[in-house]
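Reading is simple: each integer encodes one residue's backbone shape. An example follows:

___
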Amino acid sequence: MRRLASFATLAACASLVLLVGTVAYIQGVVPAPLPAPSPRAATTPYRVDPQAPFSERRGTLPALSLSGLFHPNYVLSTDPYHIRTLRVTGDVIPARGVNYFATRRNDFLWPFRPTADYVRDADITYIDLESPLFAGCPVVTEGFTFCGNARFVDGLTLMGAKVANLANNHLTNYGAQGTNATVQLLESHGIKTSGLGPAAIIEVRGLKFGFIGFNGVGRAIDRQALKASVEGLREQADVVVVQFHWGKEYERQPMADRGVPTPDDPVEIGHLSIDWGADIVIGNHPHWYQGVEVYKGKLITYAHGNFVFDQMWSEETREGVIGTYTFYDDKLVAASWKAVRIYDYGQPQFMNDADAAQVLTTMERTSKELAERLGETGSGIGKGSS
């Protein structure tokens, strides 16, 4: 009996060590080097219901579908050799009212504090920074010429931003000087940029993620440049991520706005990006969250809504989602969205469960409406999906 008890004790200790290692990894603590993965770990990407189809019980990766995204019926593996997470926010605009109230508080971490722990708990956090940041930014409460205090960069590092997309219609509001100051500020704090120069490439446990960005607000997106950029990045990275600033503002469905002008149809541009080699397309700018689309087995997210901004004048502009996109090796296998609501002209906080569920219901409904409009009905898998 003593020998049996000893074996039980050793097994319990081993389980405790495994649990502690898993928790440390989830909390962002880099664990000790792991042994080579076993063949079983490489072929069992997730656990499923025993009544699931044979292909799923066999351990093959699930094909993306709208129903699977909003109602997943499997539990993904947590094997760090294979799983990598990309977390994406909506518009980050620490300007105007946000800048005013942060300056009054003398607290430039204030907008980011309630959500920072969650947002940074990913392998890569990718934001849309729609405001130049520099010392001496004028403190104003109205107008459409945006800038924010340079000290907001500490908030970006607090939330764990690894890449900031700068391809949008406000980053250049203070000309080349403001833009250059912003790029230098971000780079000095270890934040890479997309949209203004060479692609940002980040390696996560041997897998390279590449990021490029394009602005389609106030101008047409250069399709030749887009194609060349995607195809060029395809040769450098294992996962190609393209972010766009696009579409008509204050709408649930992606559409062009020829009066601004924002002439490109986001659906067309998103499809072209996938056709040319993108693995996931990220959208922002409309200031409302929108639905998503699965096209040829790849995900297009059309808008994440606002994240840090002062648009308190409607419920829709106060709301946004933080997207988490989970890759098994270089394949996107899951996505989830966490809803936020902005308070006090600039501070996002997580919604209560009932309101958050309503956001997801709205996202799913608008996604299905888009799929029906595009003729992508039936199984919920986008046209051309496999």
Q: What stands out?
A: Residues 83-373 form a domain with the Purple Acid Phosphatase; chain A, domain 2 fold (CATH 3.60.21.10). The chain has one domain: 83-373. Confidence is low (pLDDT under 50) at residues 1-43, 378-386.
